[in-house]
Structures are given as structure tokens and as C-alpha cells.
Amino acid sequence: MSQLDNEISGEIVDSCLYIHSQLGPGLFESVYEKILIIELQNKGLLVENQVPVPIKWRGASIGNGFIADLIVEQKVIVEIKSIENLHPVHYKQLLTYLRLSKKKLGLLINFKVALIKTGIKRIVNGL
User: Fold this and answer.
1) What is the H or E stretch that residue 8 is in?
2) Is there a contact between 32 and 40 (Cβ–Cβ < 8 Å)?
3) N or C: which end of the chain has fewer CB within 10 A?
4) Origin, by domain of life (predicted)?
5) For the whole model, what pTM was predicted?
6) Residue 126: predicted pLDDT
7) Residue 7, H or E segment
8) Rounded Cα–Cα distance for residues 85 and 5 (Å)
């Protein structure tokens, strides 16, 4: 994991802490996504949202396999949730996204929690 990856994820986490402290839990995922984009862009970070990621299977192009909520600096995938509880499949889903996009780091962020630090999970793809 490069220092840059860690710096990017630190900026994302800091932004999530700030957003949650100002708004609290319970809003739609799309609201948190739009606000997080604004916060990260204000920090000078490149943020792509709702990014379709194409999939190849045995050399054949299958089309888009998933849509990433956010990709920050073309390095970190951010999957945003606003749900009661994260389930093991959510972690596996993000790991699948990382593998298919050949990215090393992802953040799974659930805003529907009392303390946002308990809703932020870091997922690393061993490639």
C-alpha cells in the first residue's frame, strides 16, 4: 500500500467524520454521496462518481459488471451505505469490486450509525 493511498483514504475518512458530525445518520445514500463529492473536490481530489466498470471473461468483453459509487484519485473505491447493519456480503462485494477493477484499496462507509468511526471499514485487495 503506497503512502498516497493512505493519504487519500485519510482525507476520505476525515470528510466522512465531518459530514456525519454535521448531518448525523438517516439520510439517503445519494445525499451522503453528493456531499462527500463536494468535500473531497474542495480538498483538491479527483472524484469520479457512479463509474461503470467493464468486465472481461476469458478475453471477452461482458459489459459493465458494477457501478462504483466513487473512485477517488483513480485509486480508492468508496462504497457508500445508509443501512441498519453491514453484512459480510457487503465486505465481499467491495473486495470483488477491487479485484475486478485492479485497485488495492476500498472504503465501505455506512452513514446510518451513531458513531461514524464504527461505520467505516477499510478493505485491502492483495492483488
Assistant:
1) helix 3-23
2) no
3) C
4) Bacteria
5) 0.92
6) 86
7) helix 3-23
8) 27
- Residue 67: all three cell numbers together: 457501478
d(CA 62, CA 97): 15
Residues 6+ apart with CB under 8 A from 20: 111, 116, 119
Picking from 54, 26, 32, 25, the residue whose alpha carbon sits closest to that of residue 107 is 32
| Those residues with Cβ within 8 angstroms of residue 91's Cβ, 6 or more apart along the chain or in another chain | 108, 121, 123
The per-residue pLDDT for range 18-45, each reduced to its tens digit, is 999 999 999 999 999 999 999 999 999 9
Would you list the domain boundaries of the chain?
A: 3-124
How many residues are given for the chain?
127
pLDDT over 90 at 48, yes or no: yes
How many other C-beta atoms can be found within 10 angstroms of the C-beta atom of residue 92?
Answer: 11
31-37: Cβ within 8 A, 24+ apart = 32/80, 32/82, 32/109, 32/111, 33/69, 33/70, 33/80, 36/12, 36/70, 36/78, 36/80, 37/70
